[in-house]
Structures are given as C-alpha cells and as structure tokens.
Amino acid sequence: MAKIRIHNMMFYGFHGIYEYEREQGQKFYVDVEMVTRDDKAELTDDPKDGVDTALVYTQVKDVVENKRFMLLQALAVHVNEQLLKAYPQIGEVTTCVRKPSVPISGPIDYVEVEATSKAK
User: CATH no. for residue 9?
Assistant: First the structure.
C-alpha cells in the first residue's frame, strides 16, 4: 500500500453557517491523503493502476468551488466520497479543510476539520 498526499491546495469557496459566508465566499485550504488498497501500482508502474494527482486536484477543486456546504465536515466528507467513487484503488481517504476567516471573536489562524472515509 502507498499513501498519496496533496498538501495546501487553495480554492475559493462559498461555505459557512452564515448566509454572508455563502454569498461572499473566501479562501479554503485543503489537504488530501489517500491510502491505496494494495501494491499493484507500485509493482506494475502502470498509470491506470495508480492515482493521477492532477485529476485529484481537479476533483477537489470542483467540489470546493462549485458546491456549497454549511459545515466543513460535510465538505470534507463529500470530497472523500467523490475520490473514493473515482478511484476504486483507494481504500481510505482523509481530507483536511482549513478556513482562515471565521466569525470567531478572538485571534486565531484558522479552523480546521479532518474527515476520514473508507471504501466499502
């Protein structure tokens, strides 16, 4: 098995509990870690047995930029579901979403949510 990670992808999305967050939008930072089911890609060195990280980026971008969620947890799980559906060779996906501008009255860097989903 292999772990494939993409760190700190930045997208502009429209997610949040408050309506103004979903209307104005903001930057979101996303990390994805995928664990393969087996060693097939490592043994064959065939791209069809592996995970195309450029396509993963495109799929994550599509979810973050074209869908709207009130909760970051829902966003992260939706990303996981899309990747598990697209790549049967992935056994587990963990998505971490960071939101730097949150309506919290105090100094913070960001709010972060991490969700892990396993293939069925």
Answer: 3.30.1130.10
Express each pLDDT in 43-95 by its tens digit.
Answer: 899 988 899 999 999 999 999 999 999 999 999 999 999 999 999 999 999 99
Instruction: Give the C-alpha separation, 7 to 113, whole Å.
Output: 14
Range of the domain at 90: 3-118
Number of domains in the chain: 1
Query: Can you give the length of the chain in residues?
Result: 120
- pTM score: 0.93
The amino acid at 104 = I
**Using CA atoms, how far apart are residues 16 and 102, in angstroms rounded to an integer?**
9
Residues ≥6 apart with Cβ < 8 Å to 77: 95, 115, 117
